[in-house]
Amino acid sequence: MTLFQTILFIVFLFSLQPSASVEICRVSCGNQLVRFPFRLSSQPDRCGYPRFNLSCKDQAQTVLSLPFSGEFNVVHIDYLFQNIWLNDPDHCTPKRLLHGLNLSSTPFDLLYPRSFTFFNCSAAASTQLHQAKYISCLSGTNFSVVALPADRLDSSASLSTSCLEIATVLVPFSWTGWSNLGNGIMLTWNEPNCLRCENGAGNCMFKSETGLDVGCSGGFTNGMFLFCS
Ligand SMILES: *[C@@H]1O[C@H](CO)[C@@H](O)[C@H](O)[C@H]1NC(C)=O
Ligand SMILES: *[C@@H]1O[C@H](CO)[C@@H](O)[C@H](O)[C@H]1NC(C)=O
Ligand SMILES: *[C@@H]1O[C@H](CO)[C@@H](O)[C@H](O)[C@H]1NC(C)=O
Ligand SMILES: *[C@@H]1O[C@H](CO)[C@@H](O)[C@H](O)[C@H]1NC(C)=O
């Protein structure tokens, strides 16, 4: 090899390195792509940010385990907007919310949280509650569990006579999955902030071997696709 070829070869090697490590840290579980800031617990620690580890059940279902609220199926990870959609493995997300979704020690927050009050009504009463969301997975033959936005309770004062109040809990306002099972709840995270990088089609990753600073490799570094923020 000439000196020039050697230099080219070295440059080639170094240019491969970042993308190679990006490739190692990119895996699929079912149809969910898992990449930074998430990693599967079976991957190297530095593939993901602390507390963003997921597991992959039966090589098909991505699972997030919350320290105080148990396991949720991951429906979708939106890397561009830093949201994660979760669902109850038993398809009754309202039940999980009623038990109290405790996000302590997690990097996540509810997206657009709103207070809802849950009621247990006689079946007859529930048909009159137009604004109420009917929770089929908690209801039975002779009773209906419904939920109302806490700030709308005044207009439904009749509830108190035919319904028993169960609890008032915070739920994500984005929660459209009251009766259809698909959507579940949506959480968001602020740290690490990969928004700029993701919007520039770059690869968000740790800046160095140690520490929690994140940087961006590749993508539109001049910010062609950046948000106006
Ligand atoms: C995530 O990582 C932590 C620390 O390494 C570990 O205690 C926890 O069990 C892991 N969670 C899952 C779902 O593997
Ligand atoms: C979450 O659960 C832990 C452990 O039970 C408790 O210490 C903490 O206060 C709870 N956080 C909230 C917000 O309820
Ligand atoms: C609602 O009431 C019925 C009958 O009174 C009871 O069996 C059921 O467990 C209650 N459900 C909830 C979620 O409180
Ligand atoms: C529902 O109510 C009817 C009439 O009161 C009663 O016959 C039936 O056993 C009840 N069903 C359940 C599951 O409690």
UniProtKB/TrEMBL annotation:
One of its GO terms (cellular component) is membrane. It is found in: Membrane. Pathway: Protein modification; protein ubiquitination. Residues 1-21 form the signal peptide. Coiled coil: none annotated. One of its GO terms (molecular function) is polysaccharide binding. It catalyses: S-ubiquitinyl-[E2 ubiquitin-conjugating enzyme]-L-cysteine + [acceptor protein]-L-lysine = [E2 ubiquitin-conjugating enzyme]-L-cysteine + N(6)-ubiquitinyl-[acceptor protein]-L-lysine. Keywords: Membrane, Metal-binding, Signal, Transferase, Transmembrane, Transmembrane helix, Ubl conjugation pathway, Zinc, Zinc-finger. Residues 25-88 form the Wall-associated receptor kinase galacturonan-binding domain. PANTHER family: RING-TYPE E3 UBIQUITIN TRANSFERASE, RING/U-BOX SUPERFAMILY PROTEIN. This is RING-type E3 ubiquitin transferase.
